[in-house]
From TrEMBL:
GO cellular component, one term: membrane
Matching CDD domains: Delta12-FADS-like
GO molecular function: oxidoreductase activity, acting on paired donors, with oxidation of a pair of donors resulting in the reduction of molecular oxygen to two molecules of water
Protein name: Acyl-lipid omega-3 desaturase (Cytochrome b5), endoplasmic reticulum
Record family assignment: Belongs to the fatty acid desaturase type 1 family.
Subcellular location, record wording: Membrane
Keyword terms, alphabetized: Fatty acid biosynthesis, Fatty acid metabolism, Lipid biosynthesis, Lipid metabolism, Membrane, Oxidoreductase, Transmembrane, Transmembrane helix
Pfam families the record matches: DUF3474 (PF11960), FA_desaturase (PF00487)
GO terms of biological process kind: unsaturated fatty acid biosynthetic process
Ranges for domain Fatty acid desaturase N-terminal: 14-67
Length: 383
C-alpha cells in the first residue's frame, strides 16, 4: 500500500513538473481538429488507385523474388538474411492491407476489399475482423477502457492477473509475439475473437464480412498445409514460417512504439477528459531509418491517427504542414541511423516500467510494478 501511494505521488509529481516546465501534454490543446485539417494541403487528401497498386506490385514482386532466390540458393548462411528481409516485406504487405482497411488505398470500396483480403490473407490476418477492431482503436485512441490496441491495464485488473501472465506480457521478447494470440483472444479484460462472426467485437450486420475473411484466412492456412505435404514442412517453415514470425515481431514492436515509450510520460484518458483529438495527440511518430520507405512511412503516425483517410504516400507532407498547428503537442521523432537500434532501447525500457494505470481518475499515466521482476528473481534463486 505504501509503495502504491509512493508511485501515485511520483505520477502526480511528474504532472506538476511538466506544468512547471511550461508544458503539460495532458492539458486541453489550444486548437481544434479542424485547425489541423485546414493546415493540410489539398493534394494530401487525394487517393490514387494506380499509385497504391504500384506499391502492391512492388512488394509482391520483391516477396516472390526473395523466395525464389532463397529456395534456389538454399544456403544456411543466407537463410537468416532471407528471413529478416522477407519478414520485413510481409510487414510492408500488412501496411498496404491496413491502408485498404482505412479506405486510404482508394475511393473504390470493392478494390479496397479485394486487395485487402488478398494481402492480409497471405500473411494470415483476417481482413475484416482486424479492420473492424482497428477502426475501434482509431475511434477510441488514448482511452483506457475503450481503446483496442496495446491498452493499459487498470491496476485492479493487472494485480488480479497470475504472475506468470504478467511476466509473459512484460518480458521482452515475449510481447513481440503476441499478435496471433490477440487475434484469437484479444487482450486481458477484453473478450472476443477476430475470427468469430458472433464475437462481441462485431455488430450483427457485420457477421457476413467476418465469415468471408475467416474463410479466406482458412484457405491460406489450407494452402500452407498442402504445401507442407507437397514440398515438406521444413521448406514451408524456412520459406514462410520464420518470415511470418519476423513479421509478427515487426507488427507488435511498431504498434507498441506508436503509443508507448516516449521519454516523457504521456496521458491516457477516461470519461469527460477524453476526446478524439486529445487521444490522437498521445500517439508518437517514429523514424525507422532505411525501413521508412520499405514499410510505407507507417512511422508518420500522429497525422495518420487523426486522419486515417490520408494515403501513406502523403503523410510526410501532411505532417510537415500541420506541425505549426500542433506545436509542442507534436513530438519530433529521434533521428535514426540506417538501422533504428535506438527504438529497441525505447521498447525494452517501456515494457519494463509501463505496467498499469490507476483505477481512478480521468487523466492517468503509466505506473511501475516494483515487485514484478523481483518476485521472478527470488523464485528462481529458491528453485
Amino acid at each position: 500500500m505504501v509503495v502504491a501511494m509512493d508511485q501515485r505521488t511520483n505520477v502526480n509529481g511528474d504532472a506538476r513538473a511538466r506544468k512547471e516546465e511550461g508544458f503539460d501534454p495532458s492539458a486541453q490543446p489550444p486548437f481544434k481538429i479542424g485547425d489541423i485539417r485546414a493546415a493540410i494541403p489539398k493534394h494530401c487528401w487525394v487517393k490514387s488507385p494506380l499509385r497504391s497498386m504500384s506499391y502492391v506490385v512492388r512488394d509482391i514482386c520483391a516477396v516472390a523474388a526473395l523466395a525464389i532466390a532463397a529456395v534456389y540458393i538454399d544456403s544456411w548462411f543466407l537463410w537468416p538474411l532471407y528471413w529478416v528481409a522477407q519478414g520485413t516485406l510481409f510487414w510492408a504487405i500488412f501496411v498496404l492491407g491496413h491502408d485498404c482497411g482505412h479506405g486510404s488505398f482508394s475511393d473504390i470500396p470493392l478494390l479496397n476489399s479485394v486487395v485487402g483480403h488478398i494481402l492480409h490473407s497471405f500473411i494470415l490476418v483476417p481482413y475484416h475482423g482486424w479492420r473492424l477492431s482497428h477502426r475501434t482503436h482509431h475511434q477510441n485512441h488514448g482511452h483506457v477502457e475503450n481503446d483496442e490496441s496495446w491498452v493499459p491495464l487498470p491496476e485492479k485488473l493487472y494485480k488480479n492477473l497470475p504472475h506468470s501472465t504478467r511476466m509473459l506480457r512484460y518480458t521482452v521478447p515475449l510481447p513481440m509475439l503476441a499478435y496471433p494470440i490477440y487475434l484469437w483472444y484479444r487482450s486481458p479484460g477484453k473478450e472476443g475473437s477476430h475470427f468469430n462472426p458472433y464475437s462481441g467485437l462485431f455488430a450483427p450486420s457485420e457477421r457476413k464480412l467476418i465469415a468471408t475473411s475467416t474463410s479466406c484466412w482458412s484457405v491460406m492456412l489450407a494452402i500452407l498445409i498442402y504445401l507442407s505435404f507437397l514440398v515438406g514442412p521444413v521448406t514451408v517453415l524456412k520459406v514462410y514460417g520464420v518470415p511470418y514470425i519476423i513479421f509478427v515481431m515487426w507488427l507488435d514492436a511498431v504498434t507498441y512504439l506508436h503509443h508507448h515509450g516516449h521519454d516523457e510520460k504521456l496521458p491516457w484518458y477516461r470519461g469527460k477528459e477524453w476526446s478524439y483529438l486529445r487521444g490522437g495527440l498521445t500517439t508518437i511518430d517514429r523514424d525507422y531509418g532505411i525501413f521508412n520507405n520499405i514499410h510505407h512511412d507507417i512511422g508518420t503516425h500522429v497525422i495518420h491517427h487523426l486522419f486515417p483517410q490520408i494515403p501513406h504516400y502523403h503523410l510526410v507532407d501532411a505532417t510537415k504542414a500541420a506541425k505549426h498547428v500542433l506545436g509542442r503537442y507534436y513530438r519530433e521523432p529521434k533521428t535514426s541511423g540506417a538501422i533504428p537500434i535506438h527504438l529497441v532501447e525505447s521498447l525494452v525500457a517501456s515494457i519494463k516500467k509501463d505496467h498499469y494505470v490507476s483505477d481512478t481518475g480521468d487523466i492517468v499515466f503509466y505506473e511501475t510494478d516494483p515487485d514484478l521482476y523481483v518476485y521472478a528473481s527470488v523464485k528462481s534463486k529458491i528453485n
